[in-house]
Amino acid sequence: VATIGADATCDADRNAEHAIIFLVLVIAGALIYSFRSQLGITIRKGMVKSLSLFNSSASDTNGWNKVQVALKCCGVSNYTDYDNSAWNTRDGLFPGSCCGGNTTSACDEVQVYNMGCFQGTLNELASKWYTWGGAAIGVGFSLLVSVFMTCCYYREIASYESV
């Protein structure tokens, strides 16, 4: 921000560029907020597709194991989602990551987490939403203050040049 402000003191037209950047930040924030429900739909579709590859794709399996251990969840909606995955050949058993973190062994329906990872993911995103929003507002406000300070500084320089 300081670099942008210093650069702007050399050319008054830069303030217009900074104002445009600020407006773009505000518009982007408004669009993200208005399309947040679409974000949930997109996340769910990606999770369903990835879970169908569990136990047949190493990267999907590792990703799901990490998510399920971290969020203490199982499947997308719940543990029955494993019926539609490559894991369902295990005779009613579920991945160990669905039951407390042991990713090398399986567990049964008695031990399995009931919460699905989609809800856990949404909860995690929601807990960070205000942090992200606050950071975006802070950056935009800093940019606005920088433009204001640059205008004041440029006015001072112009008054000295006219003397």
Strand and helix map with partners:
Elements: H1 2-9, H2 14-34, H3 36-52, H4 58-71, E1 94-95, E2 106-107, H5 117-161
Antiparallel strand pairs: 1-2
Helix pairs in contact: 1-5, 2-5
What is the rounded distance between the termini?
31 Å
Proportion in helices: 55-70%
Report the C-alpha radius of gyration, rounded: 25 Å
Shape descriptor reads rod-shaped
What proportion of the residues form beta strands (DSSP E)?
Answer: under 5%
- Write the H/E string, N to C: HHHHEEH
Tell me about the biggest sheet?
A: 2 strands, antiparallel
What's the pLDDT, averaged over the residues? 78
Question: What's the β-strand tally?
Answer: 2
Low-confidence stretches: none
Number of continuous helical runs:
5
Secondary structural class: mainly alpha
Please list the strands of the largest sheet in the order they lie side by side. Answer: 1-2
Descriptive keywords:
rod-shaped; mainly alpha; 2 strands; two-stranded antiparallel ribbon; 163 residues
Would you mind describing this structure in some detail?
- The protein is rod-shaped, with a radius of gyration of 25 Å.
- With 163 residues, the protein is an all-alpha fold.
- The chain has helices at residues 2-9, 14-34, 36-52, 58-71, 117-161, and strands at residues 94-95, 106-107.
What's the quick description here?
This protein is mainly alpha-helical and 163 residues long. Helices cover 64% and strands 2% of the residues.
